[in-house]
Design goal:
heterodimer, A: mainly beta, six-stranded mixed β-sheet, four-stranded antiparallel β-sheet, 0% helix, B: mainly beta, 11 strands
């Protein structure tokens, strides 16, 4: 069975600094998607970034970038120039391309210190 | 363009009761997925509806059932509520298996 593990329950970073959130996953499939979702106190789950497993190039979205290591089954999220609005729960997630369900990790709560 | 909407925002039920949660998908989306998010946990997949049929189901008992209407909106029904059913219930819509957009959720408390 596929699993997603986030080993950091909470993290803090100073405003304007850079922080990296860790995620590992386990799957026997070779074709899948990986995601980072943000869930602020409003509860709305927002897609931050997506990575297709067949792409070697790491995905980037403005201040957000990932380090995708397929052989190591690692998928970390780097947030540059952290802003107060980045404070939220961050979930790492996996979806097999021929499946409909998204499998989520337990999340990392990110605090931004002014 | 309205995103995914869910109702109610929150509700409180008693053990043994039944509850119905509602979801309206984003415009143009035909697929609805439901997730349960217990406190301090990541969401867990309950099931997905496409063309008014249950397309895939997660590891949830038959007390959890759903429905999709011709306008693609969906309902989640939970019978014989247990204390452990207390959670945030998230609906996500998509065009088939493409990117899922989430609603704000319904917070269910079972007492």
């Amino acid at each position: 069975a596929q699993t997603v593990t986030q080993s950091q329950p909470e993290m803090s970073v100073q405003e304007a600094e850079t922080v990296t959130l860790s995620c590992t996953y386990d799957t026997s499939e070779s074709d899948y998607y990986l995601f980072w979702y943000k869930q602020p106190p409003s509860r709305q789950m927002i897609l931050v970034i997506r990575q297709e497993a067949y792409k070697q190039q790491n995905a980037t979205e403005n201040r957000f970038s990932v380090n995708f290591q397929k052989a190591a089954k690692s998928f970390s999220l780097k947030i540059s120039d952290s802003q107060l609005g980045d404070a939220a729960m961050y979930f790492c997630a996996y979806r097999f391309t021929r499946d409909d369900k998204i499998i989520f990790g337990k999340g990392t709560r990110l605090h931004i210190l002014p | 363009d309205a995103g995914v909407t869910q109702s109610p925002t929150h509700l409180i039920k008693t053990r043994g009761q039944q509850v119905t949660l509602r979801c309206s998908p984003k415009s143009g989306h035909d697929t609805v997925s439901w997730y349960q998010q217990a406190l301090g946990q990541g969401p867990q997949f309950i099931f997905q509806y496409y063309e008014e049929e249950e397309r895939q189901r997660g590891n949830f008992p038959d007390r959890f059932s759903g429905h999709q209407f011709p306008n693609y909106s969906s309902e989640l029904n939970v019978n014989a509520l247990l204390l452990g059913d207390s959670a945030l219930y998230l609906c996500a819509s998509s065009v088939l298996a493409y990117e899922q957009y989430f609603g704000p959720g319904t917070r269910l408390t079972v007492t």
